[in-house]
Specification:
Blueprint lengths: L30 H15 L1 H8 L5 H22 L10 H22 L5 H8 L2 H13 L5 H21 L6 H23 L5 H11 L1 H14 L6 H29 L1 H7 L2 H14 L6 H20 L1
Amino acid sequence: MRAQNSATAPTSVAVPAARARPATESPQVSPRGVLRAALGVTAFSLTFPATAWGLEGFGPWSLVAVRSALAALIAGACLLALRVPLPARHHWPGLSVVAAGVVLGFPMLTTLALETSTTAHAAVVVGLLPLTTALFSALRVGSRPSRGFWAAALAGAAVVIAFTVTQSGGALTSADAYLFGALLVCAAGYTEGGRLARVMPGWHVIGWALVLCLPLTIPAATVALSYEPVQLTAHSVTGLLWVAVGSQFLGLVVWYRGMAAIGIPKASQLQLAQPLLTLVWSVLLLGEQLTPAAPLAAAAVLVCIAVAQRARA
C-alpha cells in the first residue's frame, strides 16, 4: 500500500561555541535548552507526513536528493554570510558520521519505506529512536548501562518487532527493513552530532554536515530528476520545502542546540512524544485510519523508553 507518505539575520544567529566539557558530564537543564529540543521534536514529528506529501509529486530518489541539496545550499549560504571558519580537522570524522546518518541515510531509508508503508506504521517503528540513540550514546562514551536499561531496551524492541510482524501478515517487509536500518544510522548521527554540539554551535554541526554532502546530492538530484517524473502540486512542494528546511536544517539546528544544553539522555526523553505526534499528524494531514495496535504499540514503546531512561539516570 502506497503511503500518501534543520534566512537568518547576520547579527543574531552567530552563537558562541559552547564550553567544551567531557562527554560524561551532565549539563544543567535550562528551560531554553528544553524548548529548543522540543521544537526539534515537533519539526521531526512532521517529517513523515511531509515526506508522504512530497512523494505525491516526486520520486523517492529525487525527493531525498533535492531536499538534501536545498538544505545544504541554505546552510552553506548562512555559513558563508557569517564567515564561519572551517571546522578543525579532528571534527571532520564526526561530521562525516552526521552526514552519513542524518543527511543521507535516514532520509533515504525512510523515504523508501514510506513508498509502501503508512506514516503511522513508520512512526511506531522509528519510535525506538530515543532508545537506540541512548544506547549509541552509552557505547560512544564507554558507559555501562544497568540491567534495567537493557531489559527495557529489549522489551521495547520486542514490542516493535511484534507490531511490525503482526501488521505485515507474519513477516517483516522491505519497508520494515528500511525503517530498522534508518534507526541505526540516525541514532549514530544524533549521538555524534550531540557530541560535536558540545564544542561548536549546533547549527554549525548540521550546516557543515549538509555542505559535506553537496558533491553527492547535487549530481544525484540532477540525475534523479531526469529519470523520475515530477508533478508539482501544493502538497508535493509543501512537503519538499518542509523536509528540506524544517526537518533537515532548522529542526536539526534547534535539536542539536537543545541536546548540547540539556544532554543527550534528557533530550531523548523529549523524543518520547514524537511517535504520538506523528500519529496525530497522519490522521489530520493524511487522513490515515489508525489500527488499534498503532497507538497501543506507540504507548508501550514510550513506557519502555521511560523505564530505560530512569534505569540509566
